Amino acid sequence: MKIRQIQFAVTVAETESFSLAAERCNATQPTLSNAVSQLEKDLGGKLFSRTTRKVEITPFGRHMLPYLQAILSAESEALAAAAGFHNPEQKLLKIGFSPLVDMHMVASLTTPFSRQRDDVDLFFKECLLDDLADRIETGAIDLAILPADIVPDHLDRLPFYADPLFYLPQHGVSPSDASVVSLSDLPDDPVIMTGGGCGLNKSLEVLFAQEGKDLTPYPGYAMSYPVIEDWTWMGLGAGVLPKAKLSGGHVGAHRLVRSNGQAAEFQFLWVWRREARDVSHVHAFLEFIRQNGPRLVAGQVRLEAV
User: Fold this and answer.
1) Are residues 61 and 204 in the same domain?
2) What is the predicted pLDDT for the residue at 300?
3) Domain boundaries, position 101
4) pLDDT confidence tier of residue 123, bands split at 50, 70 and 90
5) What is the dihedral of CA 252, 256, 261, 267, to 10 degrees?
6) Is 23 helix (H, G, I), strand (E, B) or coil?
7) What is the pTM of this model?
8) Helix (H, G, I), strand (E, B) or coil at 249
9) Contacts of 154 (CB under 8 A, 6+ apart)
10) Same structural domain for residues 253 and 202?
11) CB neighbours (10 Å) of residue 49?
């Protein structure tokens, strides 16, 4: 495998088009197609289903995509670390997060901070929770964004944002005709979960336990949030996803509320080791989000509501 082949494949997955991917990667379409074909040969399976009209990622492709993205992320991390060593005056702020995090919310804070501090480069690292925890403890990242229910007690924290939850009924089994449904009224259908590394499973377990509601996981697990939507449509089970992870075209999702009528939601926090605050540019960012975070996040929420 070569990095360029992986870049091509990930871009095709993002654009769902070989021609658009070639344009974005500044390559000819035959070059990109040949590189993806060679990668598929190395991996022993087709990543994409190609017709004259559209490109779709295969089940094998969905399985492999997070690993390919991790390779590209590791390359970026190595290059950023090297640049920081050679140019110590240019500071690097390293932020890690799970796939459950809404990147629009992250950008609502990091973009204005970058405008103020052009001497600080931002490096983002998407990780599963075990990897994220190790990176916080070793100082490989300065800050992390985590669901509130799974933050270790010894880490310092600041509130970030709340993401409302939606219930995706098992195909053909609707809990209500209304757009809003109470968690206590949900049918006892199995709930489709992920592999566990993003924080969705643990956060749902805490939520259901708080409401005194049994949570029955579907025996298999999905590799991505779109797969959860696909499986609910196939009738394999129900799903619960935060708003940020619902596809734009999904229909039939019910906004989920607690038994007291309050919105069911995931709370996300900024977390860091106490020692990280001693680093000047980390301290500056923490002060920035402490002073400006609530206003900027509120503005993003209003924008999404329009």
Assistant:
1) no
2) 76
3) 68-161+268-305
4) confident
5) -150
6) helix
7) 0.74
8) coil
9) none
10) yes
11) 12
